[in-house]
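W.,

You were right to be curious about this one. When I first looked at the sequence I had no strong expectations either way, so I just let the prediction run and decided to look at it fresh. Below is the sequence, 176 residues in total, followed by the output.
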Amino acid sequence: MNTLILRIEKAILTIPSRQSWLDSAILLLLFAVISLTIGFYLKFLKFELFQQSLLEAAKIIIISIFTPAITEELFFRVLLLPHLTENASINDQWLWGCLSLVGFVIYHPLEAITVFPSAYHTFTNKVFLLLVTFFGSLCTIIYFQTGSLWTSVFVHWIVVITWLLLLGGYSKLNTQ
């Protein structure tokens, strides 16, 4: 239990450097190119501006920072992955990174089955799960590079609100 508390403390207190933010932004851009190409080619993504009120958009933007961004990053990165200060071997990083990624991918269909049934068709979609796999890999790499909760939370938040508000995510989750 002490290890988990220390991981949370270190991840929260590790302030990313400018270089960490820059590296995270570059990885995010790479992810955007890959995921947009795949998503549009396989007709999972579409340009679609959010059609609700500005107040609803603001709610989504605010709520998304807490869930899924902070909650999922705390669990799937901070608690499951060794922090930079633990000096884990590359083999341990790969092992825990892969286990975390598998859990992250499986979590989405399980979430749809248990607590978010309107997301079932989306969260069990093969293209969505492929993109979630790439996305989980991105967040894992960013966390391993920075040791900070904040870089992976920011990236997670940006990706979620972009998908919900600009790429048809909101209507996918709320009209099926």
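Here's what jumped out at me. The first helix runs from residue 2 to 13. And, maybe more interesting for your project: DSSP finds eight helices and no strands in the chain.

Coffee later to discuss?

I.
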